[in-house]
Design goal:
- Chains A, B: It catalyses: S-ubiquitinyl-[E2 ubiquitin-conjugating enzyme]-L-cysteine + [acceptor protein]-L-lysine = [E2 ubiquitin-conjugating enzyme]-L-cysteine + N(6)-ubiquitinyl-[acceptor protein]-L-lysine.
- Chains A, B: It comes from Neopipo cinnamomea.
- Chains A, B: One of its GO terms (cellular component) is cytoplasm.
- Chains A, B: Keywords: Metal-binding, Ubl conjugation pathway, Zinc, Zinc-finger.
- Chains A, B: Belongs to the SINA (Seven in absentia) family.
- 2 copies of one chain form a homodimer.
- With 242 residues, the first copy, chain A, is of the alpha+beta class.
- Chain A has a domain at 33-42 and 78-232: Sandwich (Apoptosis, Tumor Necrosis Factor Receptor Associated Protein 2, Chain A).
- The first copy, chain A, has helices spanning 2-27, 52-58, 96-104, 166-169, 198-204, 212-218, 237-241; strands spanning 34-38, 41-42, 77-79, 90-92, 108-110, 113-118, 127-135, 138-150, 153-162, 172-180, 183-189, 192-193, 208-211, 219-220, 223-232.
- In chain A, strands 2, 5, 7, 8, 9, 12 and 13 form a 7-stranded mixed sheet that branches. In chain A, strands 1, 6, 10, 11, 14 and 15 form a 6-stranded mixed sheet that branches.
- In chain A, a hairpin with a 2-residue loop joins strand 14 (219-220) and strand 15 (223-232).
- The model of chain A is unreliable at 24-31, 45-72 and 236-242 (pLDDT under 50).
- The A-B interface holds A 26-27, 29, 61, 149-150, 153, 173, 179-190, 204-206, 209, 211, 213-214, 216-217, 220, 233, 237-239, 241-242 and B 26-27, 29, 58, 61, 149-150, 153, 173, 180-190, 204-206, 209, 211, 213-214, 216-217, 220, 233, 237-239, 241-242.
- Strand 11 of chain A pairs antiparallel with strand 11 (183-189) of chain B.
Chain lengths: 242, 242
Amino acid sequence: MLFFTQCFGAVLDLIHLRFQHYKAKRVFSAAGQLVCVVNPTHSLKYAPTLCAAAQTSTEQGILPPCHHHEAVHDPQLVPCMCPLFSCPWEGHLEVVVSHLRQTHHINILQGAEIVFLATDMHLPAPTDWIIMHSCLGHQFLLVLRKQEKYEGHPQFFATMMLIGTPTQADNFTYRLELNRNQRRLKWEATPRSVLECVDSVISDGDCLVLNTSLAQLFSDNGSLAIGIAITTSKVHNSEAEM
Amino acid sequence: MLFFTQCFGAVLDLIHLRFQHYKAKRVFSAAGQLVCVVNPTHSLKYAPTLCAAAQTSTEQGILPPCHHHEAVHDPQLVPCMCPLFSCPWEGHLEVVVSHLRQTHHINILQGAEIVFLATDMHLPAPTDWIIMHSCLGHQFLLVLRKQEKYEGHPQFFATMMLIGTPTQADNFTYRLELNRNQRRLKWEATPRSVLECVDSVISDGDCLVLNTSLAQLFSDNGSLAIGIAITTSKVHNSEAEM
């Protein structure tokens, strides 16, 4: 009997997953887009001390690279970028991807355009949704975070980071797109490097920011579909002049 | 001597204005776009009681039409939409435009695509920047507001409203676009009718929302250029299905 109950549960889960995929595909109807269902994890590592120095200076409007562990002397050493755990790991850029996959079981997706379907948006802050995205010969980390910057008013912050150096990151542009309920919101920017700090990017608000009511308007049954595209950046003449 | 000083001041102002136009045109380089420099006005009518009922119900996630003055029984009667003044005027839709032009000296611009250049973004909240936009046979009202939803944390809210009925508004889509510093933010939505309430749209956050640091990143020398485009809306298949 228990066996049948479990089987039935598994079938229901599969149907639910299939249905979520279908919905996300319907929203972003471009052919060949990969839909990734991303489950939330309640953040244990909230407002980490790692980036305290960076956060203080960014509040004054400057965007310095993040100062990591005081003990880190090699600037190419990255502390664990996964904001989900207070993970003591640190290592070189080359092994960040395998650490995130193996230790934190973060999925990695292939393809220039994918749909990130974050489930259970109603969960209380702090909560994170994370995937890695392999594209154009590099790996990127997409972080969606629900956080209460102002007490009692949770907001959603989404940003993309290159698992590479700031110089490499400058070669790319990422786009995050929400599209539902006759509203469309697009954010385009150069990804930051994971050598900078995801926490300072988010506390800065230099990313896609959604308040709860907008997030509700863009959500479907508690899930938020974010279309992601990465391109190699072309320097716009108008911007280059500035 | 005073005459020469004043003349010199006027010439400096003209040069400054010309320079701002030039900068805005450089950001939005599409040919034929009209640039409108919009000066701020410190809002005297802040958190008006007009919309208190609507705000309470929208906090619960519903978006009702705004309940205007208790004394208004004709639903087509609009109280003065200009958020700058606690203006006791109310009248029918047909005379809203002439009231805003004549009494509040709000500019009206022609053209499908214009650039709204809001100056002096550093001024303290509450502050408004307003223009009217005549396009596709209708008049629209663009409101940019700096407001402290959370004390000590001013945010910018931008929305477009049709000076017409909600049914007429459903036929259009407006787009607001910011583009600077290798970042681009686009908001597309159906305009709301001025029969609804600009205050409730903004308190809802159902509009383009910018925190101060993002507004700084998109600003140039204290001025924020917002590209505006209005089109007749096409019902997207994917959205129609939902």
